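Table S2 (text version). Query chain:
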Amino acid sequence: MGHAGMAEAAVRYLRAGPVEALPRPELRCVREDERAPVDQGDFRRVLGTFATGVTIVTAPAAEGESGPAGFACQSFTSLSLDPPLVTFMVGRTSTTWPRIARAGVFCVNVLSADQGGLCRAFAVSGADKFAGVPHTPAPVTGSPRLAGALAWIDCTIHAVHTGGDHLIVVGRVNALGAEEGDGAPLVFHRGRFA
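Corresponding C-alpha cell output:
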C-alpha cells in the first residue's frame, strides 16, 4: 500500500467514529523474560549520542507537605497540539514523582545554557532543592516557575502510562510562556552538558 492508500485508510478509520479506549495497564515491575538482550552500558552510550534539552519539572506542595517538589528531567517533549499535551518520563524509583502525582499538576521549566548548576542541584535526591532558588507561582497551577528559565509550561496531569522501568506522564497544558530574546538552551549530550 502506497502513501496515498495509507492516508485514505487513516481517513476512513478516523471517520468511523470514536475509538474505544484500551484498558489501563497494570503497574508492575519488569520481569526477567521481558529484558532485552542489550547491554545497559551500550544502550546508554548509543542513546547518549542523541542530544536532549534539559528541564526541571516542579510541583507545588501537596496537602500535608512542607514545600514544593522538583527534579531534573531530560526526557521532555511536546505530544499534541489539539488538545495541547506534553510528556515527560520519570523513573519508577523516583522519590519526587509521588509528590508531583499527589499535587496533580506540574510546571516544566526549560533551562538556559547557564543553568547547569541548577540542574545538578535538582538531580540530587533528598536535598532541599528550592533553597535559595528564586521562583514564582505558575498562573494556573501555582507550580514553581524558576527564575532564569528560557520557557515554562504549566500543566495538569492528564494520564500516566507504564514504560519499562519508567512512567510516561502526559500533561495537559494550561498556560505557557517564554523569555524574550535568543537565549541558548541547556543541552545534554554524551553524558555531559553541551
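Notes on Table S2: The chain has one domain: 51-193. The chain is about 20% helix and 35% strand.
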